[in-house]
Design goal:
The radius of gyration is 23 Å and the shape is globular. By secondary structure, it is of the alpha/beta class. The protein folds into two domains: 163 residues, D-Maltodextrin-Binding Protein, domain 2 (3-Layer(aba) Sandwich), CATH 3.40.190.170; 120 residues, 3-Layer(aba) Sandwich (D-Maltodextrin-Binding Protein, domain 2), CATH 3.40.190.170. It has eleven helices and eleven strands. Bound molecules: pyroglutamic acid (PCA). Pyroglutamic acid binds next to strand 8. This is TRAP transporter substrate-binding protein. Keywords: Signal. It comes from Pseudaquabacterium terrae.
């Protein structure tokens, strides 16, 4: 009897302490609220998709799985996403794959120019890339949830670009090692600017050309400084969503299933949103006075040669695995 009283008193005490903890906000987050870090804005293409992913997951799990979004690199800036996730600064993280090439060389396939020319190509590349990326990340204690592409990368400029020489000496905004190499080969000056600071860099006159998607042009209202857009469709880079394996393994089997289910539906929705944004954003650029120009044959030839050079450089630097991946991309479905 007294034994029972003691244990029920202990339960009461535990309950009271838990309630007090909740009132005082200790711990700051409930144990099952996960932090999702991203380097992009909440209202961006990917940000909106992540918001829906979090909402859907909360709904599917009847509130048991909650995710708070930490945007604009405030919790983890893009260059720190991988080490930050590995050391547990967030449970989930989203980063552009071409920014992870130091640790994840095969992610660099995303920005080898003129290999992926359509969303169908991009899907095919991801099918061949995914198992290799998954294996690499698993060895770092991370699990892949999904990848969603940005719309195709086009060329923006303040001045008309008729041939490669017109880019000489321009201040080209860069965001990964490929764009840096392109600037170098074109004898332009590479200026590293994170996506969320593009508008500011333009206003300050630090950049006058860049390769990125039309949607990034729209989100940063680049028509204030850039007047020409050439849809060169250079590549379709993807954002990757990862979860810490340790956090994932703490979920019960049912919750794990819900998380994977929400990720599959977010991935499908993300690809649809991206394709839609690709169509609409070029029109928005036009509507805001930008000239959407066809690529001259001179520029197209120069870009093709540049693409061949970069493909070779990439395969050589990454090694046989890169070669193998491209062979299966080109020869299989
Ligand atoms: N926007 C991002 C990455 C690719 C894109 O279309 C950026 O410009 O940084």
């Amino acid at each position: 009897m007294s034994e029972q009283l003691t244990s029920s008193r202990r339960d009461c005490l535990a309950l009271a302490l838990a309630a007090a903890g909740a009132t005082w906000g200790i711990p700051a987050r409930a144990a099952d609220t996960w932090r999702l870090a991203t380097g992009y804005r909440a209202d961006s293409l990917h940000g909106q998709n992540l918001r829906q992913f979090a909402d859907e997951l909360a709904q599917l799990s009847a509130g048991a799985l909650r995710i708070e979004l930490h945007t604009e690199g405030k919790l983890l800036p893009l260059p720190q996403m991988l080490p930050g996730l590995m050391s547990g600064k967030a449970e989930l993280g989203e980063a552009i794959m071409t920014g992870l090439v130091k640790d994840l060389p095969l992610a660099g396939a995303d920005s080898v120019p003129f290999i992926v020319r359509s969303y169908d190509d991009a899907r095919r590349l991801w099918r061949h890339q995914r198992p290799l990326i998954e294996a690499n990340l698993a060895s770092r204690g991370l699990r892949v949830l999904m990848a969603v592409p940005w719309p195709p990368q086009g060329l923006f400029s303040q001045r008309p670009i008729n041939g490669a020489t017109d880019l000489r000496g321009l201040n080209m905004r860069t965001y990964n090692s490929t764009t840096v190499r392109i600037a170098e080969l074109l004898q332009a000056k590479a200026v590293d600017v994170p996506m969320i600071q593009v508008g500011q860099a333009l206003a300050e006159g630090r950049i006058n050309a860049m390769i990125t998607s039309a949607v990034t042009g729209v989100e940063n209202q680049v028509w204030s400084g850039l007047k020409f857009y050439y849809p060169i469709n250079a590549w379709f880079p993807k954002n990757l969503l990862m979860v810490r394996k340790e956090a994932f393994d703490k979920l019960d089997a049912g919750q794990q299933r819900l998380l994977l289910q929400a990720a599959v539906s977010a991935e499908q929705r993300g690809w649809r949103l991206s394709e839609q944004a690709a169509r609409e954003s070029v029109e928005t650029l036009r509507g805001n006075g930008m000239r959407i120009e066809p690529v001259t044959s001179e520029l197209s030839q120069a870009l093709r040669r540049l693409g061949e050079k970069l493909s070779l450089e990439w395969v050589r630097s990454v090694g046989p695995e890169a070669n193998q991946m491209f062979i299966s991309y080109f020869t299989q479905g």
